[in-house]
Amino acid sequence: MNWTDLFRFSPRASRQEYAFVSLCTQGISLLFYALQGRFASEGLSWIQFILALAFGFVSAVLLWAVFWVGLAVSFRRMHDMNLSGLWYVGYYVAVVCVGVVFSEIWWVATVLGVAAMLFLCLKKPSSSNRFAAAAPAFMPGVFSKRGVFAAAVVACILLSVGQVALSRWQLASAQKSFPARQIQSVPAR
What we know:
Transmembrane segments: 18-35, 47-69, 89-122, 148-166
Radius of gyration: 20 Å
Number of strands: 0
Number of helices: 6
Distance between the termini: 67 Å
Pfam families: DUF805
InterPro entries: DUF805
Keywords: Membrane, Transmembrane, Transmembrane helix
Strand content: under 5%
C-alpha cells in the first residue's frame, strides 16, 4: 500500500483498511488529547508556556492530518459500499451539531459515532461498482483472519469511548480548577 493513498478520497477502501486506519487515528487522537491535558494547568512558567504553545501548534497540525486521513478513508469506505461519500458529511454535521448544541446529551454523539463505525465495517459485495473496481486486500497476511479484524473494530470502539471519557474528565477537572468568575456589570455611560 502506498501511504499517500491515505489522503485520497477515491477510489475505494476495504473494511480491513478502514478498521486499521480508524484504530490508528483514534489512538493518535487519544494520545494527543491526553498530552494536551498535561499542558493545561494554571501557573505555567514562561518556558513551560512556550513549550505548551509549540506543542499546541504541532498537535493542531498533526490532528488536522489525522482528521483528513479519517475523513478520506471513511469516504473511500462509503464508495466501497456503493454510496456517495457525501453521506458521511451529513453524518458528521449531525454528530457535531448534537455534540456542540446539545452538550448535555454528549453521549448521543458517541453512540452515533460507534454506530457509524460499525456500519462502515459491515461486509459488502466485493464486485465492481460505480466508483471503481473492488478494493484491494489490505495487509492480507494480517487481516485475513477474522479475529484480528474483530479485535481492531473492538479496539476502535474502546478508543472512541476512552477519548470521550478523557474529554469529559478534562472538562470536569478544568471546571474545578478554574471556577466561573462573577462578571460585574459596567454602568452605561
